[in-house]
Here is the input.
Amino acid sequence: MPKDCIFCKIVAGQIPCFKVYEDEHTLAFMDINPVNPGHCLVVPKIHAPNLFESEDAELARTMAAVRKVSRAVQKALNPYGLNLLQANGPGAAQSVFHLHIHIIPRERDDDLRMNWGLKAGNKDEIAKISEKIRD
Ligand code: DGP
Here is the structure.
């Protein structure tokens, strides 16, 4: 585990998160800067900095978890739609260099665009939504 990887620390339980799903290979938790309510992230537990350096098997397991969590988000929050996003490299605005897939619930006319600026979320609201998805 790279010493300075924030998502490795979350996987190891050294930094808290609002967890919504976990299995042997993957972890899903709420994004701390949600672009829309219910925005969450799915990560492989084994560190890979990006898509290019990930293993096929890890990627397949991660995407299976993405589908599972996406179904939970859809059921819990009934969004208008869902976007999946993976920022690959600084040029694509990747800011955390541990592979992760964003699950972004969409609202009608939310006017969401790619490469949004980071804005701190409301922790109470994030916690409440995470309970709905986890259930
Ligand atoms: P990206 O820019 O695609 O690398 O997305 C990184 C996301 O990770 C960004 O939306 C904010 C989120 N994030 C950064 N640090 C933390 C953290 O400590 N906890 C949680 N839950 N999310 C984080």
In short: The two ends are 30 Å apart (CA to CA). Residues 6, 15, 17, 29-33, 87, 93-96 surround 2'-deoxyguanosine-5'-monophosphate (CB under 6 Å).
